[in-house]
Design brief:
The structure is a single chain. By secondary structure, the chain is mainly beta. It has strands at 3-11, 17-25, 31-47, 50-61, 64-73, 78-84. The chain has one domain (3-84). It has no helices and six strands.
Length: 86
């Protein structure tokens, strides 16, 4: 999947980011807002030499609950939905 998204998140005093909801373009090219119900995992990673933070989250869209992986790239300050687990 690896699609860039618009994110609303909370930045704590210590700098920790917590994603709250995001907006993505669906198959009909309409913007869809998705509220994150639970952050299951948050950890720093490095892929292809790029520092990022990986988030495993739970949310519902299209009438189904999904678990998916978000990534926040530190250098570019961009969010992406990397993959849908189920």
């Amino acid at each position: 999947m690896n699609m860039q998204i618009e994110m609303i998140c909370v930045c704590a005093v210590d700098g920790k980011l917590t994603p709250l909801r995001f907006r993505m373009e669906n198959e009909e090219h309409c913007l869809q807002t998705v509220a994150i119900t639970q952050v299951l995992l948050s950890k720093p990673i490095q892929y292809a030499g790029i520092d990022a933070i990986q988030y495993l989250c739970k949310a519902a869209w299209d009438g189904k609950e999904h678990v998916f992986e978000l990534r926040y790239t530190l250098k570019s300050h961009r969010w992406s939905i990397f993959r849908v687990v189920y």
